[in-house]
Amino acid sequence: MPMQESGEMYLETIHILSRRSPNVRAIDVCDYMGYSRPSVSRAVGLLKREGFAVTDEHGHISLTPAGEEKAKHIYERHTLLTRLFINLGVDEKTAADDACRIEHYMSDKTFDAIKAYVARNGSPDGKAD
């Protein structure tokens, strides 16, 4: 069963925060996403139940291998689409916002085609990958 957009957003957020610090707490997710503590606690509980996240005795949240794989997939979509839109002349905030909306609904087939196009024609930000 495909994951809902909100679940993907939480996975991506935990992934981003864990790149900054190995100790991600629910309050960090709240601050980053602007959501309430009860909303984040519920979402983390769902991610744990689905096998995408775990928490330790200190309440630190980490992604399981399955969660990390899914989060990296979502994050790759977000970053590639954002860079592509910026390269097309869209301002950074709009590009990131639009990429965030699109990344959850785009098929793998379409994303793979965009990724292949970018690989053939150079990085969307004009730099070599």
Any key phrases for this structure?
mainly alpha; two-stranded antiparallel sheet; Diphtheria Toxin Repressor, domain 2; Arc Repressor Mutant, subunit A; 67% helix; 6 helices; 2 domains; 129 residues
Distance between the termini: 33 Å
Percentage beta strand: under 5%
The major sheet is characterized as: 2 strands, antiparallel
Q: Give the CATH architecture of the largest domain.
A: Orthogonal Bundle
The SSE order reads HHHEEHHH
Helix/strand structural class: mainly alpha
Spatial order of the strands forming the largest sheet = 1-2
The helical percent reads 55-70%
Gyration radius, to the nearest Å?
A: 16 Å
User: Under the CATH scheme, which class of the largest domain?
Assistant: Mainly Alpha
Estimate the mean pLDDT confidence. Answer: 89
Poorly predicted regions are none
How many discrete domains? 2
Overall morphology:
elongated
Helix segment tally: 6
CATH level 4 superfamily of the largest domain: Winged helix-like DNA-binding domain superfamily/Winged helix DNA-binding domain
CATH topology of the largest domain: Arc Repressor Mutant, subunit A
Number of strands: 2
